[in-house]
Amino acid sequence: MVYGHSDPGRSHIIEPVTLKILVAGGFGAGKTTLVGAVSEIKPLRTEELLTEAGRPVDNIAGVEGKKTTTVAMDFGRITLREDLVLYLFGTPGQDRFWFLWDELATGALGAVVLADTRRLEDCFAAVDYFERRGIAFTVAVNCFEGADNYPEESVREALDLDPGTPVVMCDARERESVKRVLISVVEHAMLATAATS
Amino acid sequence: MTGDGATDDRWFDDAAGPVVRPYAMTRGRTRSAAEDKLDLIAVVVADRVTPGSAADQTLSPEHIDIVELSRDTPQSVAELAAELDLPVGVVRVLIGDLLHAALVRVSRPVPPAELPDERILREVINGLRAL
Ligand SMILES: Nc1nc2c(ncn2[C@@H]2O[C@H](COP(=O)(O)OP(=O)(O)OP(=O)(O)O)[C@@H](O)[C@H]2O)c(=O)[nH]1
Ligand SMILES: [Mg+2]
Description:
heterodimer; A: alpha/beta; Rossmann fold; seven-stranded mixed β-sheet; 7 strands; B: alpha+beta; three-stranded antiparallel β-sheet; 5 strands; binds guanosine-5'-triphosphate; binds magnesium ion
């Protein structure tokens, strides 16, 4: 933990407890839409500067010679209480940016894997990742055209999910729907915590 | 995009985002001692001291922006980066400087390696229900 120099006379600004939930899923699965549906701010973007190799730039020397690019992570904020703030981070989709996932995943409360039933295989990687890292996640089946042809059981089977992993149907554009998804993630995280302690 | 960008004095192109200047701002440094600990949701708070009073000539306008932004409202590292439109890595270095100069504090109540306790999780669920 990092603290600045403490000062007994400092003001009584409330420093919130901050938590984060990751939102993963394939290209165009609705991650930004989901974040936007519940965020109190317009989804913001943070960027990280990368070299061609896909690692953060370490040193300015030689940067001009290499191709640099930025990768964006969009995020939203939900102030649950003055002293409790939840952030949602959309994960960058491409595999080569996985070190950013590692950073995002550290300390995450849990994750949403958004599934588009037209391209379920797009979320294999995310499911694998969270399973391996032991991060509680909920699979949210986004209600694009044709999603209703995909009952929970077939999604579960196609993704080879552990029986305990929740699968919920959602419409990423609908606030209430997204709230349900997030509650499912936190409930699942709570069970996981209880199970390991 | 590999635009030559030579036509004007812009230091960025739209696709690539800021490339050179942000790291010039940090004098080429990309790591600070505190960086590893500065999670995207770590909260930065500036105490109610005017940065001017520190009379620190080495503060850049971006340092001062961070202090001002986090004075009244604690800001997460991610929010500061978005607000200043700078890469997260750059903002971390700048915050590291400010920490070093004792101009800000960074709080990270939940140790990143652990999950928050059950009470907090329950509060999150209740908070979400009440939205
Ligand atoms: N019908 C329907 N359309 C949706 C839903 N969610 C998102 N969309 C649409 O799908 C498109 C892609 O959504 P985004 O939120 O941009 O997806 P994304 O995962 O952020 O995409 P990338 O960041 O490019 O990977 C947009 O045009 C949305 O309006 C949904 O639940 N139902
Ligand atoms: Mg997106």
